[in-house]
Amino acid sequence: MVEKQKCLLKASPPFSLDLSMRATQPAAPATYENGVLARALRLSNGRLVPVEVRQIGDSENPIVEVKLLAKVDGKERREIVKMLDRFLCLSDDLKPAHKIMQRDPVLNSILEKLCAVRPWTSLNAYESMICGVLFQQISLNAAFSIIRSLVLGLGDSVVVGDRIYYDFPRPEALARASIERLRACRLSRNKAVYVKGIAQAIVEGFNPEQLGKMPLDEALEVLRGFKGIGLWTAELILATGLKRWEVVPADDLGIRRAVSKFYMGGKTASANDVREVAEAWGPYKWPIAYYLLVASERMQRL
DNA sequence: AGCCAGGCTCTCG
DNA sequence: CGAGAGCATGGC
Description:
globular, 5-stranded antiparallel β-sheet, 302 residues, two-stranded antiparallel ribbon, 14 helices, single chain
């Protein structure tokens, strides 16, 4: 029998794991079923630890319970907590963003439903880079399906009881995989090349976390230097993977649809239209754009 | 069934 | 240079 450790984390209110996960399903390897978020996490010492996360307490008094399905020491536990805090935005205070939203009738009207939703976020910069490429062009569901194939095919896993917990494929695994192997995970030929190239750069020492500290223009330039990463992808990576929330991927079709619907009476919105509207959102352009997106096409899921 | 979907690169003219 | 082709899968 596996010894199960638990720890309780506070989230800054308002917070709802359930609304956050249902607004946009988490990409593989994370799963969300019956109120439980699960995946395996690779720690810096190489250990692979499966975790399960659920919320206890309501959105105004949010406590997140983390079940560790392997025995870990104090240092490992702190690392896990840090990863989950980042992934779930537990200690990010969204209240300033909500305050900005209150000044705008459109945004204020969706705030009540969505204030406990956290902006779409990746576990780390690396996963956001790979997934960013895989989200290009095709529908979200198609992309989620491909990411799942990639994780099942090339991700490391650990079995606990009757369940298998996956981690995202390591850069080494993607760099080593042949193009044909990646295509077998249903990537297009081009995306297989891009993903492999990004993974190779990381294996060779590129650290995408450094993008968090660079000036915005520089970070965008570095990202766009990769084959397969254009402006949309670079901005998505900075927003979801590095929490550069002052960024909005203005070319995003969904965000453009949302701006069109709420601010332009249905008239097609260009990327520049999005940037103009988002000018008022200060350093919270991504969270607010995301709220708008969720309000525009995902309300019935919540 | 066919067409479009949270883009990007490469190839032409 | 600007325009156009091609791409993978899922959903309407």
